[in-house]
Design brief:
It is found in: Endomembrane system; Membrane. With about 230 residues, this protein is an alpha+beta fold. The chain has helices at about 1-10, 25-35, 45-55, 65-105, 105-115, 135-140, 145-165, 195-210; strands at about 130-135, 170-175, 180-185, 225-230. The longest helix has about 40 residues, at about 65-105.
Length: about 230
């Protein structure tokens, strides 16, 4: 009723039911008053309420009360399990998203985007860039099925990715058969950038010498590499 809502919304006095001693056991009335205490730490937990009810009933069967309390207990337990499960799933998905984001963008840029802050352009004084593409890629593509082209690029760039992991470089992106790597950014490394890219290039050239296409193993794969340092 509206008048009760009004009393609850605007105390004092506090809106509490009046229960006389002949309407309920004194233990129940005392427990009820404990439950509506204004100080939360003085209110009994659901387990304590359950234990007190069992004591009040002295072992007698009280189906309604037992069923209600057990349902509340079970619901609370199930809810905790559900929240824990959903939290774990959310954390796993968050880790996947963060991993994908850091693979596509520099960590500093990825963190700024996640925080919703603008990404300011940054100037780098010394950087070396690496570009490479596959010689005759247009001809190879014309002689291959689309999935075979995808497998070729995936196999080749998986090989490249494993190599660059042992050098102080950052893969910028791949577009078609083009592979772009930089050193000296996003982490500055003094004047080591040229040497890092040069050594990486030699390692890539060496690995390509033994690389075979799945669908055309007899056709050698050659790559064309260009470097720019400044």
């Amino acid at each position: 009723p509206p008048e009760i809502i009004e009393k609850v919304q605007r105390p004092p006095p506090l809106c509490r039911p009046a229960v006389s001693a002949d309407q309920a056991p004194l233990e129940c009335i005392h427990l009820m008053k404990e439950c509506w205490s204004e100080q939360p730490e003085k209110r009994p937990t659901i387990d304590q309420v359950f234990d007190q009810f069992k004591g009040i009933n002295k072992g007698r069967k009280t189906n309604i009360i037992d069923s209600m309390l057990r349902m509340l207990e079970q619901y609370s337990s199930n809810l905790e399990d559900l929240i824990r499960e959903r939290t774990e799933e959310l954390e796993i998905e968050k880790q996947k998203t963060d991993k994908l984001l850091t693979q596509m963008l520099p960590p500093s840029v990825a963190e700024a985007l996640k925080m919703g802050t603008p990404v300011e352009p940054e100037y780098f004084e010394e950087v070396t860039l690496y570009f490479s593409d596959i010689v005759g890629f247009t001809t190879i593509s014309a002689m291959s099925e689309p999935i075979e082209v995808v497998d070729l690029l995936n196999d080749l760039y998986t090989l490249f990715d494993a190599i660059i992991g042992s050098h102080d470089v950052y893969k910028v992106e791949t577009i078609g058969d083009a592979y772009m790597v930089a050193s000296g950014l996003p982490k500055r490394n003094g004047n080591r950038h040229a040497g890092e890219i040069a050594n990486m290039s030699l390692d890539i050239l060496s690995s390509v010498g033994t690389f075979k296409m799945r669908h055309m193993p007899e056709v050698p794969v050659r790559i064309r590499i260009g470097l720019h340092s400044g």
